[in-house]
Amino acid sequence: MAFLIVIAGPSGVGKGTVVRALVSRDPSLWVSVSAATRAKRAEEVEGVDYFFMSRKEFLRIRKEDGFLEWFEVYGDLKGTPTKPVEEKLAAGTDVLLEIDVQGALAVREKFPDALLIFLRPPNRAEQRRRLEGRAEGDPAQQAAIETRLAQAEVEEALASRFDNVVTNRDSEVAAREVAAILKARRAEASNAEDA
């Protein structure tokens, strides 16, 4: 049985870092690449970090029901392409989504058995430091930090709707915690199949 694992949390919590650490521990996981209408950052790679596309192209795909979930996030559209996720799950491959909180809750509606893990920052000061580090040299990102921190308060209030909550003090430790959660879920499913 293949699992759909969703890691979500506020901006600046370190989702990408934890996902990379998790996949290095468990290369059998297939990470879905989201589509986004925002500009590509200098360090990002097309098709690896996101599929960068125009708003017009995104809306066309959305109209064709091509996204598992989609939302407008800080003025940009982001979504998870449906077809590759469904193909990987059908082939028996565990799929990992790294998306925002509202997207995770939308996935739960379509995949009630999805494993939703909320990633939380250790504190607001550390989250601010991470956001500021990412925004260096980008005035638009710098201006958005206060909005993202305020939104984090709202998103953290939704953590109880997730299966598990992991605090990201250290990405390797957080990845180990997520790996242990996934291992327990796999064992549970295996025991249920044997019963």
Automatic annotation (TrEMBL):
<keyword id="KW-0547">Nucleotide-binding</keyword>
<protein>
    <recommendedName>
        <fullName>guanylate kinase</fullName>
        <ecNumber>2.7.4.8</ecNumber>
    </recommendedName>
</protein>
<comment type="similarity">
    <text>Belongs to the guanylate kinase family.</text>
</comment>
<dbReference type="Pfam" id="PF00625">
    <property type="entry name" value="Guanylate_kin"/>
</dbReference>
<dbReference type="InterPro" id="IPR008144">
    <property type="entry name" value="Guanylate_kin-like_dom"/>
</dbReference>
<dbReference type="InterPro" id="IPR027417">
    <property type="entry name" value="P-loop_NTPase"/>
</dbReference>
<dbReference type="InterPro" id="IPR008145">
    <property type="entry name" value="GK/Ca_channel_bsu"/>
</dbReference>
<dbReference type="GO" id="GO:0005829">
    <property type="term" value="C:cytosol"/>
</dbReference>
<dbReference type="GO" id="GO:0005524">
    <property type="term" value="F:ATP binding"/>
</dbReference>
<keyword id="KW-0418">Kinase</keyword>
<feature type="domain" description="Guanylate kinase-like">
    <location>
        <begin position="2"/>
        <end position="183"/>
    </location>
</feature>
<dbReference type="GO" id="GO:0004385">
    <property type="term" value="F:GMP kinase activity"/>
</dbReference>
<dbReference type="InterPro" id="IPR017665">
    <property type="entry name" value="Guanylate_kinase"/>
</dbReference>
<keyword id="KW-0808">Transferase</keyword>
<keyword id="KW-0067">ATP-binding</keyword>
